[in-house]
Amino acid sequence: MSQPRPILYTYFRSSCSARVRIALNYKGIDYDSRAVNLVKGEHTSDDYTELNPGKLLPYLVIDGEGLSQSVAIMEYLDEVYPDKPLLPQDPGQRAKVRAIVNAISCDIQPLQNMRVLLTLPEEQRAEYACKIISTGLAVVERMLEKTAGDFCVGNQVTMADCCLIPQLYNAHRFNVDLSAMPHIRAIEERANALEAFRCAHWSRQPDCPDDLRSSAKN
Q1: 60: which of 19, 25, 37, 174 is 20 to 30 A away, CA to CA?
Q2: What string of H, E and C letters represents the secondary structure of 7-46?
Q3: Which residues form the GST N-terminal domain (predicted)?
């Protein structure tokens, strides 16, 4: 008996969800999306909380498993679906990928996500997010000076790229100046040429409002 299609609980502007969208796309794993609107608080509903007590996105139902936390999900996908690996074979290179992943997923994204921004006065949120993202990406740029080829670590797409590109969605949203980050800008350009990344972009998600979708094309 064939397994049912995976279901990804996602939100169009969730950068953590985008990481998993990219990984699924890159590996050629077809899935169905279930939109959970963070702004409307749908992640705190009884139905979603029963599914995912952490009340966070993304959440992936696959192979009879329910998986939370984007990095853990990507690790699972790489172990169970080894074609087009997202981690290098060499242990040292794998460690470099994971270091970049952690620099983004631990040191940048949690400090500028919606839960944190909502604790600040509205007039301070954009400036705060810009500063956090700019400072964090400057560190990533220094890391890339030692690891980058065509992508974050060498010449193949890895989990590091799956994390970097969605973080750049937020960088652009909050007008972060990337002019002094040539490695980041070059990797973004190469990644955006790949269909796996293009299809994962927030503007191409079914739950993206039409006005935002239109603005992204201008």
Answers
A1: 174
A2: EEEECCCCHHHHHHHHHHHHHCCCCEEEECCCCCCHHHCH
A3: 4-85
